[in-house]
Amino acid sequence: MDQQIISDVRQWLDDVVIGLNLCPFAAKPRAEDRVRICVSHATTDEALLDDMQAELERLSDTPASELETTVLAIPDMLSDFEDYNQFLDLVDLWLQQFGWEGELQVASFHPDYQFADTEADDAGNLTNRSPWPLLHMIREESLEHALAHFPDPEGIPERNVLRMEQLSEDERKRLFPYLFG
């Protein structure tokens, strides 16, 4: 099962995130095999926070030249987006409590992701819709460096929403089989 989950996340990363250039900084570390994709089988908030902490420590303790970022898939809990969104509040508190702020941050992706002030079926939500609930751990230094060398980084979200709105029905089915299959 873990291999299928990892394969699902890799395909999403390659076809959607990198393939549609939603994150212009993802292609290089992925091509250099510096993206760790792993699975947590936690079924409680505490166990998932422990798994996340272990991955944060691994990321912090490993040079960026070997490991740039980590994606933690969560197949056994948080399938409901509201529950997932509430869990993200715990993640923020955890990052503060353990002093990760300024070093690492966590980005969020979910099959039912919905931005505030949008309808559930808004195409723009597809930018953060992944095959599984995910926690994406990112080095802040690397992100700041990438943003400093990218023209108009503030425009990335708007360009991504526009790209999602331009997808044909066939493209949506191909890129998001777990949503439109």
TrEMBL record:
Pfam families: DUF1415
InterPro entries with a match to the protein in the record: DUF1415
Superkingdom as given in the UniProt entry: Bacteria
Record protein name field: DUF1415 domain-containing protein
